[in-house]
Task: inverse folding
C-alpha cells in the first residue's frame, strides 16, 4: 500500500523541524534528543507534534521508555537525511562561490584539451586560483552521456547536439585534415594500411569513416588509441593514417614528422560546442569559464 504524506494542505517543512525529528529518531527518546540539542524537552516535544500535525500522520509511537518510528516516520527519516545533507551542500557551495572557491568538473575531447584549453584554463586559474578543476577526457558520445548524468558540469564536444536535454553553444570551429606519414605526398597517392582513431563515439572517427566511404576506400582496418601522442607516433611511423583538427596537428611536437592534406573546405569543418545539462542552472564559476572561452 502506498502511503501519501503530501497534500495541498500540508505546510512546507522547515530544516529545523527536520533536524529535531532526526535527533529524536537517532536518540530513541525525546528527552535524550533534547539533551543532545541543548533544548528544553517541552520544546522538542512541541516541534515534533507540530510536524506530525502538518503532515497529518504520526511519526513516532510514544512509549514509557522512549519512542519508536512509525512506518511514516521511517519514510520521513530517509528523506530527512537527504534534505539536510543537500541543504548543507548548498550552503557550502554558495559560501565557497562567494569567497571565490569551488569545484568544477569539465569534460573535453583529447584533442581539444591538448590544443585549445591550456591557455583558457591558465587564464581561469590566474583569476580564480581557489577553484578546483577536475578535467575528464572522452569521446563526444561519452561526454554527452556524462553531462546528462551530471558526472561533469560542462563538456567540450564535437558537432551539433540535437537534444532538448542538452544546452549547447558553439565555441570553436575546427578544420579537419588528413594526416599521413611523409611517404604519402598527396591524397591521390594515398595507400591505406590502417585508420588510426580514438574510441567509438569520437566525432573525428565518424568523420574519417564517412570520408573514406565516400571516396571508395572503405572498409579499412582500424586501430584504436587513447591518446593523441600515440596516434601521431604511429602515423609518423607509417603504420596508418588519421583525420584530426588542423590545430591539433600544427600544435603537436611531431608535426614535422607527418604531412597534412587539405580536404574539401565546405565539408571539412566541425563545430566544437560547450554543452551543459538543460535541467541544471549554470554554476556561477562555470559562467565565468564560459566568458573566458568566448
Result:
Amino acid at each position: 500500500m502506498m502511503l501519501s504524506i503530501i497534500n495541498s494542505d500540508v505546510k512546507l517543512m522547515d530544516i529545523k523541524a527536520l533536524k529535531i525529528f532526526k535527533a529524536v529518531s537517532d536518540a530513541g527518546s525525546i528527552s535524550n534528543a533534547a539533551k543532545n540539542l541543548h533544548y528544553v524537552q517541552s520544546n522538542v516535544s512541541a516541534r515534533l507534534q507540530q510536524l506530525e500535525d502538518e503532515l497529518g500522520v504520526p511519526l513516532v509511537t510514544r512509549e514509557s521508555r522512549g519512542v519508536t518510528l512509525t512506518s511514516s516516520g521511517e519514510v520521513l527519516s530517509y528523506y530527512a537525511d537527504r534534505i539536510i545533507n543537500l541543504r548543507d551542500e548548498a550552503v557550502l557551495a554558495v559560501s565557497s562561490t562567494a569567497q571565490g572557491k569551488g569545484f568544477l568538473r569539465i569534460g573535453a575531447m583529447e584533442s581539444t584539451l591538448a590544443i585549445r584549453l591550456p591557455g583558457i584554463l591558465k587564464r581561469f586559474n590566474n583569476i580564480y586560483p581557489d577553484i578546483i578543476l577536475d578535467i575528464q577526457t572522452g569521446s563526444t558520445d561519452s561526454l554527452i552521456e556524462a553531462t546528462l548524468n551530471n558526472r561533469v558540469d560542462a563538456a567540450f564536444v564535437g558537432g551539433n547536439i540535437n537534444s532538448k536535454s542538452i544546452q549547447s553553444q558553439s565555441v570553436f570551429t575546427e578544420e579537419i585534415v588528413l594526416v599521413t606519414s611523409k611517404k604519402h605526398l598527396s591524397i591521390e597517392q594515398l595507400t591505406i594500411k590502417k585508420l588510426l582513431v580514438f574510441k567509438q563515439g569520437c566525432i573525428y572517427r565518424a568523420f574519417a569513416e564517412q570520408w573514406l566511404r565516400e571516396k571508395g576506400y572503405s572498409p579499412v582496418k582500424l586501430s584504436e588509441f587513447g591518446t593523441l601522442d600515440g596516434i601521431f607516433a604511429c602515423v609518423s611511423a607509417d603504420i596508418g593514417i588519421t583525420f584530426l583538427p588542423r590545430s591539433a596537428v600544427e600544435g603537436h611536437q611531431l608535426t614535422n614528422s607527418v604531412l597534412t592534406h587539405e580536404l574539401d573546405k565546405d565539408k571539412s569543418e566541425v563545430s566544437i560546442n560547450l554543452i551543459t545539462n538543460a535541467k541544471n542552472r549554470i554554476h556561477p564559476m562555470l559562467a565565468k569559464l564560459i566568458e573566458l572561452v568566448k
User: Anything to note?
Assistant: The chain has eleven helices and eleven strands. Residues 1-10 have pLDDT under 50 and may be disordered.
